[in-house]
Write a structure and sequence with these properties.
Blueprint: H1 4-13, H2 15-34, E1 37-40, E2 43-46, H3 49-55, H4 69-80, E3 91-96, H5 99-108, E4 125-131, H6 146-163, E5 167-168, H7 176-183, E6 190-198, H8 213-216
């Protein structure tokens, strides 16, 4: 495969190649726009953010269907674009598709999340969300915010999965040292969560079991 800079240079001197690349670019841009659309009430509408939040459920059973690479890249991009204190971005993401590695991750968990069982198949993708505490912002009183930052990135990716017709789950019940050993993660890094990604086998309705606003909101006027 030609490197990108070589391909771009060649296209400038080859009209047919330039036209081909231009057409591909238009298709990619069009798909990128329409991926957030869904059919409702006889017309195409954009999914509203609150609807995606209501429909985001923790899914642990997945179909045996591969996740398209462009959808996975969109999910990772959502994580990359997450805000963080002082824009420190103290995170990194490990994408696991190797069945043998997923078995090791499952062995590190309190349940068999990432292997095929009678209740469902192994998720096609597991995103291991890591934090870099030494890179996070620290408030003047010593309070560290790297966990908050990584949590925001995780929520971004979780909602992006919903937007792509996929499901996820933020799994934190695992033995961290075993996960770090399986993936050769450096000692100074922390593993915050394991996020299986895939097409849901189980169906759940919109979230309902949340505290009402009047219990959690205090107005100061």
């Amino acid at each position: 495969m030609q490197p990108l800079n070589s391909l771009t240079t060649s296209s400038l001197t080859n009209p047919k190649l330039f036209e081909f690349i231009y057409c591909i670019s238009i298709i990619v841009i069009t798909l990128n726009y329409h991926k957030t659309l869904y059919f409702k009430g006889g017309k195409w509408s954009r999914m509203e953010l609150l609807e995606a939040i209501r429909n985001r459920r923790s899914i642990r059973r997945f179909e045996d269907t591969p996740v398209e690479e462009w959808k996975l890249l969109n999910i990772l991009e959502a994580g990359r674009l997450a805000p963080s204190a002082h824009n420190k971005q103290p995170w990194s993401f490990i994408v696991v598709t190797d069945p043998r590695v997923k078995e090791k991750l499952s062995a590190a968990c309190e349940q068999d999340f990432f292997i095929t069982t009678a209740h469902g198949v192994s998720p096609p993708v597991v995103i291991v969300v890591c934090a870099h505490p030494g890179e996070g912002w620290v408030r003047i009183d010593g309070e560290e915010f790297w966990k908050t930052d990584v949590g925001i990135a995780m929520q971004n990716m979780s909602l992006a999965a919903v937007n792509e017709g996929l499901a996820s789950c933020m799994i934190v019940a695992f033995r961290e040292e075993e996960v770090k050993k399986a993936l050769a993660i450096r000692p100074e890094e922390r593993v915050i969560a394991l996020m299986p990604i895939g097409y849901p086998m189980e169906k759940k309705g919109p979230v309902t079991n949340r505290k009402p606003l009047h219990e959690i909101v205090r107005w100061v006027t």
